[in-house]
Protein 1
Amino acid sequence: MKIKILFLICLLFTGCYNYSELSDFAIITGAGIDYKDKKYELSLMVANTKNSSSSEKEGNSKTSIISGKGKTITEALLDIESKSSKEIYLGHIGVLIINENVPIYNVMDTFFRNPESLKKYYIILSKDATSKDVLKTLSPLDNFPSQNIITNIKNSNKTIGYVPEVIASEFLYNVINNDVDAILPSITIEGKVSNSDNIKDLDKSSSDTYLKLSNIAIFKNYKLVGYATKSESKGINILNNNINNLVIKIKYKDCYVVTKLDNIKNKVTNKIKISSIGSINETNCKIDLTDE
C-alpha cells in the first residue's frame, strides 16, 4: 500500500519541469564559419517562425542572419547568445559552410562535441567568398538559402556529376582516416555581393547575384591541399560511387554527341572496371546513329 501511495505522489509531482515553448528557441537551419585576423566569425541562419507564416506580400524574410566573433568558435557562439533574446538551438542545422581559410580541425572538433547536432547536415566549402555572404545570398526560387544549397547539391549530383553529397559524419570519418583523402563540394558567388540582406531580389524575375557549385576540394591531414578540375571531380565521384548517372559530351568529327549515363558502377580489384548504360540526348550535326 505504501508503495502505491508513493507511486501516486511521484506522478502528481512530476511534470514538464524543463518544458520550453518552440517560440523560446532560435532554430538554426544553416551555419557559416569564417576566419580573419586570428578571429573566428560564426554566422547562424535563424528560421523566422513569425514571418514564415505571414503573407509573401509583406516582404518579410523567412530567415535572418546573426553573427558573433571570438578567438575560438565557442567564444563566437557565446557572443551570438549575448545578442539573442532566444536560446540557440543547433539540432536542425541543414548545412554547414566553411570558408577555405578556416582551420578545418577546429571546426570539426567544436561541432562534433555539440550534443544537439545529429551530424547529418551537409558540409560545403566556400571558395573566393565568405561563408556569411553565401548564407546571405537568396535565391528567387527559394527564400531559405540553406535549403536552396542542399537542393542544389542533390540536383547537381544527379546531373553535372562533379558535386558530391558529403554529410558531417562521413567527412569526419574520412578526414581522420590516413588511408583516405577527404573531399568536400565547394561553392562560390557569381555576381556582386550585397552588403545587406537581399530579400528584395526575390521580387525580381532574374537575380544579379547567385550561388554556384564548384569543383571538389581535397583535404590531407586536416588541410586543404587544392581543388580538382571538373573532369577530375567527375572521376573522383565515379570511383567513390557517389553518382549513379551523368551527362557527358563526346566529340565526334566536327560536332558533339551528348549522352546520359545511368546505373554507373565500378569494380576495383587490381584494375578499375566502370560500366554504365547510356542514352543519346542530343546530336548537333547530322550523324548516322545506326552506325554503332
Protein 2
Amino acid sequence: MTTSHYQAARENLFGHVPFLQRRMPGMLIRDLGGALLVDSGLGSDTFNKVLWECGGDGRPCRVERGAEDGLLQASKDWFAGKRPRPGMALPPATERPFTVWASAEDEGALNRQRTAFGRNGYGIGELETGMALPLNRWTPEGRPPEGLRIVQVGTSAELSAYADVLAANWNPPDGDVKRLYKAAEQVLFQAVAPMRLFVGFAGEVPVVSGELFLSEKGNTVGLHMISTREAFRRRGFGGAMTAALLRAGQAAGASLAVLQASSEGEPVYRRQGFEPCGLFVEYVLSEEILF
C-alpha cells in the first residue's frame, strides 16, 4: 500500500467522526489549531472525540512543534467542563468522557507521538491498523450466511435496529447510542449523503451493523461501525456485512476502500484483500489505559 492510501484512510476517518455532530443542534465542533474537538454533549466517548492533526475543515494538518501540551490540556479542560482558553466558547458545565484519535505512518512516528501524549497523562486505549483495498482487486468470497438479510437503513424502524446492534456492545446497552441515532434521522435520510448505514437481520432479529462513508468526492469508501451482537458471532455475519459495504461502495463509484482494523479483525480483512497502510490510535486518559 502507498502513502496516498494512508492519507485517504486518514481523511475518511476525519470525515466520518464529526459528520453527524456538525449537522445536529446542540452539538459542537471546535478547531483548536491542530486538533478538531467534536462534542456531542452526550455522556459517551463514542461521540466525543478530539481528532489529532485535523483542521477545522476536516482535512489533515500538522501540530506545530511545542504546541502538543497546550492542545492536549485544552481538550481535557473542555470535556471536564472547565473554562477554555481565550477566544473559545464556554463548554457545557458537565464533565463528559472523550478520547483522542490520531494516526501514524509507521512505528517510529507512533513512538514520537506516544511520548507527547504520555507526558500529558494519555495512554493508548486502542491501537488499530489502517487498511486499504483498491476495489478493482476485490473478488467476493462465497455466499452470505443462510437466513441473513442485509438492508440499507431507510426507515425509522431500521435505524432503531441499527442502533440496537451498536448499543449492545456495552452491558447494559449504551442508551446514548440510541439517543444520537434517533435524533440524527433527518440528517441520515437525505437523498444523497456520504454516510449510509446498513443493518443485517437473522429472521426478525437485528444482528449486525455497518456504516459506509464516502470521501474524496466519492472516490474513497470507508467501512466503519461493523459490529455483530455477541450471541451471533462466528457465523460469518461480520464478513457478510463487509462484503455488502464493499458492493455498495462499488455501486457508489468508489475506487478505494479503507478501514481501521483491530488485531482480531485484521486477519479477516486480509482475507478480503485489504493490506496495511498505517496506524490509527485512540488515546485515553491514564485511568482508562489498556496497553
